[in-house]
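Supplementary Methods, section 5.1.

A reviewer requested that the exact input to the structure prediction be made available. We therefore reproduce it here, unchanged from the version used in the analyses.
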Amino acid sequence: MDKKQVVEDDKSKKIKRVAKKKVCQFCIDKVTEIDYKDVNKIKKFITEKGKIIPRRSSGVCAAHQRELNTAIKRARMMALLPFKAE
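The structure derived from this sequence is encoded token-by-token as follows.
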């Protein structure tokens, strides 16, 4: 019975990892507006397939994520960025 208890104790003890909080890159640079013509800055927030990276994985704050979405969509309409990768 002692062996079962030891095994159960090992399974119940899970190591919790504390993720480092991501900081908004635009807040650090004190950017007031995200320009759709600045393609090099916007490309960092798009996957290889052309999808917009979500806020939880990019670390951008909510206000800048909304501006980033509109800038990406405008850049797509102006043919500066692709809608879909080939």
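Helices lie at 2-12, 25-29, 39-42, 55-58, 62-77. These observations are discussed further in the main text.
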